[in-house]
């Protein structure tokens, strides 16, 4: 065969090359007639992250995440490949995980071994690598594919280093105190055997915790020392106004950066009670420019000639160096007077250091400031809640006990109410708020609540040093016919007590015993109880004797502060009238400030067994027109005594037989309406003195007492 000419051979080679290009798509595409290979551009920022020991959630600003920015293009044209499937996975050991951009921005992503996203209109997408609990190198495979044609995709790898070495303290954050950590402590001079709480010497303790982290946000090395400091005095407003507030404070402090002098315009430190050895706490806003000054120092000098200047101890660290903030740094000066705190603690594996704060029962509810700092004072954190730091012990249901000294108050006059707060152990809760609300009665009556003579308009007041406070309830706009109203008191724990202000005319004033004078110069005695229909006593009510009284002189027990002409009911509702005046005394009447009255009658005993009221002997007759009176009689010999009782009224006729001490022996009558002919009752009695208690009657009544059956 003849050899082809050179020009023909060259043409044949070019033809075959073109044919291959058309069939295979050219170059290294390896695909069909229409495919083009993809190209990847990958940027990782940063390429080094700290180990995420605590597996904290990540989001914008987190030190534990690295951004993997990917852009996909067609290799030959350079055009963005929108819709490409982009995936990230580990090409070696998994030392973390991946989340999507949306999960990163929302802070809700859970890292996983691989993740896939779709390229946007510009062919770009972002994936985030999240460090795990161990350090090492993360070899990451990033791949882009066009649909199912994986043979047309592109792939590359990148490396991110995860550092596991913990650095020094860069930040401190209080993670306590914890309410559930409060515990009751035994004390040297504690309760006696069988007692549970010593209110004078007992203490509570609570755990205060701080978490120390390095610059990468990881826990600092184990056993890093952290110091705790405490101030809780001098205060104003505790407990009268709540938890109290520090007395020596200001917002215009000016620490000398890098030095030991501190100045505050109008500070007047010495005259305001500061003294050498007190603590100076700098408490700027954590988000403010002067936060680097936050911390605590000890006062070494208070120059008398420079009242707005103090000097901190030179053997400690000076104020930190930073931008001069001028006189803008908030400060507090004080000392630990009531409580104490463990001064040194060490971090654990999570970077947490805890100390025990201890305070006496008598200061529950008090505010305080706690400062934690590193040994060199380079990093500090201030815990200043502005409220109670010395917390109470909560009960199992989360409540405390609120009690009131009375459940009822008389109409018109009102009275004093003492309210007390106690925690689970019965410890007084000083400085805690007690809220109140007053409803109006149907006729518009209401009440003012007064403390120290001033009307409280805020709707609350605070328990005093003993956990108690006494307020004055002043009833206003209460007129005849009013039916009364309620006052509600409650604590923060929704523990509620109610006090009823009685309506005018409410309650019963009952004569319980009567001793009439039987000779000139003798003193008589009439005892009464002021009670509700359910026998609940009504204390603190003013009681007066009618101005038409015929007694030569009289006095009340308990007395009132309005002179001898008036008394006030005691805690059991009792009131006693002592009087002088021998002879017949008809219808002597006592009246309460609520408009409730009771009367009694004393007749001179001329012998013969006819008394008609007051005292007598068997046989004898007693009579009257209303109830609420007691008549005395004497039995001369042991034996049966007969009682014949009649009543001309329309309501209850109630009579009881009492012994000389006022104890009930039996009911003689409990009838409604007219009782006639007389009813008979018989009772065996020993010789002695007895009483007929006519509790209720609304018409003429008569009782004949005899030792002979009729």
Summed up, what is this model?
With 710 residues, this protein is mainly beta.
Uncertain regions: pLDDT < 50 for 5+ in a row?
6-35, 177-181, 186-200, 605-616
Helix content, binned percent: under 10%
Mean pLDDT: 82
- In which order are the strands of the major sheet placed? 16-17-20-19-18-21
How far is the first residue's CA from the last residue's CA?
173 Å
- Envelope shape: elongated
The total tally of domains equals 4
The total count of helices amounts to 2
Number of strands: 53
Structural class: mainly beta
Measured by DSSP, the beta-strand proportion falls in over 45%
Major β-sheet, in short?
Answer: 6 strands, antiparallel, barrel
Radius of gyration in whole Å, from Cα? 46 Å
How are the elements arranged and paired?
Elements: H1 6-24, E1 38-45, E2 48-50, E3 65-74, E4 85-90, E5 96-100, H2 101-106, E6 115-118, E7 124-131, E8 136-146, E9 149-163, E10 171-174, E11 183-185, E12 203-213, E13 225-231, E14 235-236, E15 245-246, E16 248-255, E17 261-263, E18 279-282, E19 295-301, E20 309-312, E21 329-334, E22 340-341, E23 344-346, E24 352-360, E25 369-373, E26 380-383, E27 401-404, E28 408-409, E29 415-422, E30 433-438, E31 446-451, E32 454-455, E33 460-462, E34 468-476, E35 485-491, E36 496-501, E37 508-515, E38 523-531, E39 542-545, E40 553-557, E41 559-560, E42 563-568, E43 574-580, E44 585-592, E45 597-602, E46 620-624, E47 629-635, E48 639-647, E49 652-659, E50 664-672, E51 675-685, E52 688-696, E53 701-706
Parallel strand pairs: 2-9, 28-36
Antiparallel strand pairs: 1-3, 3-7, 4-6, 4-8, 5-7, 8-9, 10-12, 11-12, 12-24, 13-23, 13-25, 14-15, 16-17, 16-21, 17-20, 18-19, 18-21, 19-20, 22-24, 25-26, 27-29, 29-34, 30-33, 30-35, 31-32, 31-34, 35-36, 37-38, 38-43, 39-42, 39-44, 40-43, 41-42, 44-45, 46-53, 47-52, 48-51, 48-53, 49-50, 49-52
């Amino acid at each position: 065969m003849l050899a082809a000419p050179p020009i023909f051979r060259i043409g044949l080679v070019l033809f075959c090359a073109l044919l291959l290009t058309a069939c295979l798509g050219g170059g290294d595409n390896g695909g069909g007639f229409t495919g083009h290979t993809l190209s990847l551009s990958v940027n990782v920022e940063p390429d080094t992250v700290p180990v995420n020991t605590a597996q904290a959630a990540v989001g914008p600003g987190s030190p534990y995440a690295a951004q993997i920015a990917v852009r996909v293009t067609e290799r030959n044209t350079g055009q963005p490949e929108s819709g490409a499937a982009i995936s990230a996975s580990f090409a070696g050991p998994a030392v973390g995980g991946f989340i999507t951009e949306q999960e990163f921005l929302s802070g809700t992503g859970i890292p996983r071994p691989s993740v896939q996203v779709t390229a946007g209109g510009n062919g770009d997408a972002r994936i985030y690598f999240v460090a795990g609990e161990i350090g090492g190198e993360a070899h990451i495979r990033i791949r882009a594919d066009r649909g199912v044609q994986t043979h047309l995709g592109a792939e590359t790898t990148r490396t991110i280093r995860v550092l596991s070495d913990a650095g020094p303290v860069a930040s401190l954050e209080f993670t306590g105190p914890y309410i559930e950590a409060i515990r009751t402590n035994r004390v040297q001079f504690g309760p006696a055997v069988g007692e549970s709480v010593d209110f004078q010497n007992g203490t509570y303790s609570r755990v205060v915790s701080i978490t120390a982290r390095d610059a990468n946000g990881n826990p600092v090395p184990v056993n890093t020392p952290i110091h705790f400091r405490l101030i809780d005095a001098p205060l104003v407003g505790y407990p009268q106004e709540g938890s109290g507030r520090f007395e020596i404070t200001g917002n215009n402090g000016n620490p000398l950066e890098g030095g030991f002098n501190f100045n505050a315009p109008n500070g007047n430190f010495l005259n305001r009670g500061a003294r050498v050895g007190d603590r100076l706490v700098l408490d700027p806003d954590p988000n403010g420019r002067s936060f680097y000054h936050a911390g605590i120092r000890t006062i070494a000098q208070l120059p008398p000639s420079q009242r707005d200047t103090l000097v901190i101890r030179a053997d400690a660290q000076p104020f930190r160096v930073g931008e001069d903030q001028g006189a803008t740094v908030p400060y507090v000066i004080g000392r630990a007077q009531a409580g104490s705190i463990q001064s040194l603690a060490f971090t654990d594996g999570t970077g947490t250091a805890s100390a025990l704060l201890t305070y006496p029962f008598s200061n529950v509810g008090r505010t305080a400031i706690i400062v934690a700092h590193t040994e060199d004072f380079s990093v500090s954190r201030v815990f200043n809640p502005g409220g109670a730091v010395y917390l109470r012990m909560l009960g199992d249901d989360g409540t405390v006990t609120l009690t009131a000294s009375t459940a009822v108050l008389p109409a018109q006059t009102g009275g004093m109410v003492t309210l007390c707060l106690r925690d689970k152990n019965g410890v007084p809760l000083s400085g805690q708020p007690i809220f109140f609300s007053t409803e109006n009665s149907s006729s518009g009556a209401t009440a003012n609540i007064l403390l120290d003579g001033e009307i409280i308009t805020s709707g609350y007041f605070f328990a005093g040093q003993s956990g108690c406070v006494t307020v004055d309830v002043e009833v206003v706009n209460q007129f005849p016919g009013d039916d009364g109203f309620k006052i509600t008191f409650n604590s923060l724990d929704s523990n509620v007590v109610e006090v009823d202000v009685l309506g005018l005319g409410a309650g019963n004033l009952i004569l319980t015993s009567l001793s009439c004078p039987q000779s000139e110069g003798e003193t008589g005695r009439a005892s009464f109880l002021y009670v509700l229909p359910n026998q609940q006593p009504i204390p603190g009510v003013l009681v007066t004797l009618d101005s038409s009284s015929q007694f030569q002189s009289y006095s009340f027990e308990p007395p009132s502060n309005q002179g001898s002409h008036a008394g006030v009911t005691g805690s059991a509702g009792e009131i006693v009238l002592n009087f002088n005046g021998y002879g017949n005394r008809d219808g002597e009447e006592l009246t309460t400030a609520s408009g409730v009255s009771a009367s009694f009658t004393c007749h001179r005993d001329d012998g013969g067994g006819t008394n008609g009221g007051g005292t007598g002997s068997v046989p004898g007759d007693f009579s009257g027109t209303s109830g609420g009176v007691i008549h005395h009689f004497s039995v001369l010999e042991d034996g049966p005594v007969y009682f014949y009782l009649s009543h001309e009224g329309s309501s209850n006729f109630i009579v009881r037989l009492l012994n000389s001490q006022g104890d009930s022996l039996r009911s003689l009558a409990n009838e409604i309406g007219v009782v006639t002919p007389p009813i008979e009752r018989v009772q065996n009695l020993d010789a002695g003195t007895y009483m007929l208690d006519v509790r209720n009657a609304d018409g003429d009544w008569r009782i004949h007492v005899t030792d002979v059956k009729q």
